[in-house]
């Protein structure tokens, strides 16, 4: 990472972390992917039950492999034949690992979902939620975060899953209502009623989509 970009990200992360604190959430800044993985594992006690949504950022920092190989009860949705059972098990997990489609620089987190298993678990159920967020996801305000989620994250994910949506063809949100749409539920996390539930690890890197 260019040292000028790193300095900018360090300064911006301080604002984001203060914003999260004002919203009853806890933020950390990790200078590298390895630092981000280390911080996440510090937050998760061994023997804990852990699961996740489709958080590419967690894969990219090596957290998923570490959880699978460590002394954790990792509920691996991809390895389970009964996907519904895996999704339901997430609501009683000790820790839920998530990414963010976008964040504001004052700590509001935006996520879009198709089946709602991810956003519903973020909103309620798991005892703790840990977000892994690259600094590329930080936006100036909620309007910018929504635009990023709809016009960057959603089209890329639609293409990644091979879905037949207008955004997969055009690269931008068309506000569609087709069966394949992944923009079914929008979750804006602006405050955590439960102190100590939501943690955000900001990573000085470009992660996810």
How would you describe the overall organization of this protein?
It is a single chain. The protein is an alpha/beta fold and 209 residues long. It is built from eight helices and ten strands. It has a six-stranded parallel beta sheet. Strands 8-5-6-9 form a four-stranded mixed beta sheet, with helices on both faces. The two termini are 18 Å apart. The mean pLDDT is 96.
Approximate helicity band: 25-40%
What does the main sheet amount to?
A: 6 strands, parallel
Radius of gyration: 16 Å
Instruction: Give me the oligomer status.
Output: single chain
Structural class: alpha/beta
As a percent range, the share of strand residues is 15-25%
What is the molecular shape?
globular
- What is the CATH architecture term? 3-Layer(aba) Sandwich
Number of E-type strands: 10
List the helices and strands and how they pair.
Elements: H1 3-22, E1 26-30, H2 33-43, E2 49-52, H3 56-60, H4 63-69, E3 73-74, H5 83-90, E4 95-98, E5 102-104, E6 109-113, H6 117-123, E7 128-134, E8 138-139, H7 142-160, H8 166-170, E9 185-189, E10 198-203
Parallel strand pairs: 1-10, 2-3, 2-4, 4-7, 5-8, 7-10
Antiparallel strand pairs: 5-6, 6-9
Summarize the structure.
The chain has helices at residues 3-22, 33-43, 56-60, 63-69, 83-90, 117-123, 142-160, 166-170; strands at 26-30, 49-52, 73-74, 95-98, 102-104, 109-113, 128-134, 138-139, 185-189, 198-203.
């Amino acid at each position: 990472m260019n040292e000028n970009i790193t300095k900018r990200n360090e300064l911006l992360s301080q604002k984001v972390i203060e914003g999260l604190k004002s919203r009853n959430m806890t933020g950390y800044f990790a200078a590298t992917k390895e630092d981000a993985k280390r911080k996440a594992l510090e937050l998760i006690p061994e023997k804990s039950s852990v699961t996740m949504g489709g958080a590419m950022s967690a894969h990219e920092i090596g957290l998923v492999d570490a959880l699978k190989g460590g002394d954790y009860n990792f509920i691996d949705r991809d390895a389970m034949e009964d996907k519904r059972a895996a999704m339901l098990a997430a609501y009683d997990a000790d820790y839920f690992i998530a990414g963010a489609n976008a964040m504001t620089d004052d700590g509001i987190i935006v996520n879009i979902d198709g089946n709602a298993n991810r956003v519903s678990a973020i909103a309620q159920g798991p005892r703790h939620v840990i977000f892994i967020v690259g600094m590329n996801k930080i936006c100036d305000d909620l309007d910018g975060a929504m635009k990023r989620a709809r016009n960057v994250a959603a089209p890329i994910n639609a293409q990644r899953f091979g879905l037949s949506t207008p955004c997969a063809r055009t690269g931008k949100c068309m506000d569609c209502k087709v069966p394949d749409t992944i923009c079914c539920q929008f979750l804006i996390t602006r405050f955590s009623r439960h102190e100590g539930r939501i943690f955000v690890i900001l990573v000085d890197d470009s992660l996810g989509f």
